[in-house]
Structure of Sporulation protein YqfC:
Amino acid sequence: MRRLTQKWKQMTANMLDLPQDVVQDIPRITMIGNVQLYVENHCGVLHFSSEMLRLQLTRGKLEVSGKELVIRAILTEEVLIEGIIADIRYMP
C-alpha cells in the first residue's frame, strides 16, 4: 500500500511538474563550497556540536561532519550550517 502511495505521488508530481522534494517530503540540500550547507525538509536536530550535526529526516538521517560548525539559522523544516564541512552522509 505504501509503495502504491509513493508511485501515485510521483506520478502526480510528474504530471503537474512539481519538484520531487515537495511531493515526496524528501530533503533538499544546497551546499556552497565547503563552507555553507542549507537543508530543507528535515524533521529535527538529533545532535549538534562544533564537529558534527545529525538531522532526522522523514526517511533516515543526515550526518554532517567538519570543523567550527555553527547553526546560523534554524526554522521548522530548514537549517543553515556554516563552518568547514568535511563530510555529508545519508543514513537510511
User: Anything to note?
Assistant: The first strand starts at residue 28 and ends at 32. The radius of gyration is 15 Å. DSSP finds two helices and six strands in the chain. Strands lie at 28-32, 36-40, 44-48, 52-57, 60-74, 78-91.
